[in-house]
Amino acid sequence: MLKKVRVRVPVGRPRTRPDAVAGDKAYSSRGNRAHLRNRRIKAVIPEKKDQAANRKKKGSKGGRPVGHDAELYKQRNTVERLINKLKAWRGIATRFDKTPESYLAGLNLRASMIWIDDLLPTID
């Protein structure tokens, strides 16, 4: 999945490793954090209450609390709103497309439609 991620900087080839990955509490597993840590990617994922309680219950053997950048996490809602706009189109929400190429074409078409809607002034 991360093979398709391309982060552009002003010059040079696109990077395939983002600086940080934001996720909700559902992705707060030890395995996900370890995978990101091995790739030197900052995990911006809040810790679940039960995970924090279990860690604290172990005392000093429970380890340190996970780092969490609250300001960076707040920017996550921008991505969530875009995904909701994309899923407003039935073909993307239901994933009727059989091949990755046709699904990606649908995503590009829907993104173009959103972009055009944002350019046009609203008439009320």
Question: Strand order across the biggest sheet?
Answer: 1-2
Regions with little confidence, pLDDT below 50 for 5+ residues: none
Shape: elongated
> SSE order in H/E notation?
EHEHHHHH
Radius of gyration: 19 Å
Largest sheet: 2 strands, parallel
Number of domains: 2
The class by helix and strand makeup works out as mainly alpha
Number of DSSP strand runs: 2
User: What is the terminal-to-terminal distance?
Assistant: 42 Å
- Percent of sequence in beta strands: under 5%
User: Average pLDDT, to the nearest integer?
Assistant: 82
With helices defined by DSSP (H or I, 4 residues minimum), what is the helix count? 6
Report the helical percentage.
40-55%
Please give a structural write-up.
With 124 residues, this protein is mostly helical. The chain has 2 domains: 1-74, no CATH class; 77-124, no CATH class. The chain is built from 6 helices and 2 strands. The chain has helices at residues 30-38, 49-57, 70-74, 76-87, 90-94, 100-119; strands at 20-22, 42-44. A two-stranded parallel sheet has the order 1-2. α1 (30-38) links the parallel β1 and β2 (42-44). The protein is elongated, with a radius of gyration of 19 Å. The N and C termini lie far apart (42 Å). The mean pLDDT is 82.
